[in-house]
Amino acid sequence: MTERAYRYRFFPTAEQENLLRRTMGCVRLVYNKALATRTEAWYERQERVGYKETSSLLTGWKKAEDLDFLNEVSCVPLQQCLRHLQKAFANFWGKRAKYPRFKAKRNGGSAEFTKSAFNFRDGNLWLAKCKEPLNIVWSRYLPEGCKPSTVTVKLDPSGRWFVSLLIDDYTVETLPPTKKQVGIDVGVSSLISTSDGEKIANPKHFNGLYKKLKAAQKELSRKTKGSSNRDKARLKVAKIHAQIKDARTDFLHKLTTKLVRENSLIAIEDLAIRNMVRNHKLARSISDAAWGEMFRQLEYKCEWYGRKLVKIDRFFPSSKRCNHCGFVINKLPLNVRNWNCPNCGTKGIDRDINAGKNILAAGQAVIVCGATVRAEQSKSVKPGAMKQKPKS
Questions:
Q1: Contacts of 40-45 spanning 24+ positions with Cβ under 8 A
Q2: CA-to-CA distance for 139 and 155, rounded, in angstroms?
Q3: Among this protein's residues, is 185 annotated catalytic?
């Protein structure tokens, strides 16, 4: 069994939309109040407030006269948002994410329903306090016999409604073994360059709609804040962003699925993408390439289908190392796309294809003998030398 989410678009009735918008508004209010309470408790009294304390506060908020509207929606999404906040703080303490931010209405919203707050029967989905089932566009059907354990309703900034059904999918099976292995080097002009000598061009979805987006944003900036015309202009900008995102996501899903089906081993670099986008000259191109999303898809698809994914350390000199003799040159500027090896005399080495081959070789070394490719671990240590103490 593999946990898998099936996402569909749906079109709510006027009554359902009113209820869902009120539910998301209440979720946003409870989340922001809990976040403010936890932040205030820490900075003013150095007290750490957890999920149990915020859950007790929610009970009190429902009894307040000015917040009695919280009782008009299902209590499950309100409780779930507190769990999400607790997870956000856990990620922050674990240094996996930044400090939690307040939710904004313009970003749409979402609400999560557990089993006690929905009913799924005969291909129809009823949410709590809804009299009619949701009008879902079933682009693909759920596997027979599978029922959702969690339902998440989302309103994106462009005004589209989506529902995600989380199920235990028994149809996900490991793929038959293959002898093919590949190393992948990512880039901007070519999205990926493989060790097989193949290059996949970067579609650059953002550049295709850049002029249209720029005109829409310029029009938005001229509208009066708080006016209905500004809301219309904001919606127009959001729809263009949604179009870019949908095209990019569709392309990456097709590419990653192809790579996982064809290769038993995939080796990639563990890049610090957040640090790379700080370069203002390359930030837009790197963000448009969506390397992080591609790596995320490769990771969970390899886990689903029984493939091996190896991440090579970001400091491994994949581009500067000759894949024929192993010689490493000192400098290789980004504008140099081909270079000659001064050691073995190989000429016209394509830096991207060369990097893909080196990444694959390093990945195979990790799999076979557990070798390390970290630069600091490759250095020899003198006997009796004192190692640096870990940071506290």
A1: none
A2: 18
A3: yes
Question: Each residue of 232-252: pLDDT tens digit?
Answer: 999 999 999 999 999 999 999
**Candidate list 112, 156, 288, 352, residue with the active-site label:** 352
Q: Can you read off the two tokens belonging to residue 267?
A: 């080796």
Matching residue, tokens 């070798």: 371
Domain boundaries, the chain: 2-169, 174-380
Q: Phi/psi zone of residue 119: left (φ > 0), alpha (ψ -120 to 50 degrees), beta?
A: beta
pLDDT in tens, 308-350: 999 988 888 888 888 888 888 888 888 888 888 888 888 888 8
238 and 159 in contact (C-beta within 8 Å)? yes
- Give 373's pLDDT tier (boundaries 50, 70, 90): low
Question: Which residue among 112, 156, 185, 288 is the active-site one?
Answer: 185
Contact between 351 and 338 (Cβ < 8 Å):
yes
Tell me the sheet residues that pair with 169: 2
- pLDDT at residue 153, rounded to an integer: 97
Active-site residue, 352 included: yes
203's CB contacts (< 8 A; 6+ apart) are: 191, 247, 248, 251
Report phi then psi at 196, rounded to 5. -80, -5
Q: How far is CA 122 from CA 113, 125, 142, 144, in A?
A: 19, 9, 11, 11
Which residue among the candidates 112, 156, 269, 288 is catalytic per the annotation?
269
Q: Which residues are bridge partners to 350 per DSSP?
A: 338
Strands (E), the chain: 2-10, 109-114, 118-121, 124-127, 136-137, 150-155, 161-169, 181-186, 190-194, 199-201, 265-269, 308-312, 338-339, 349-350
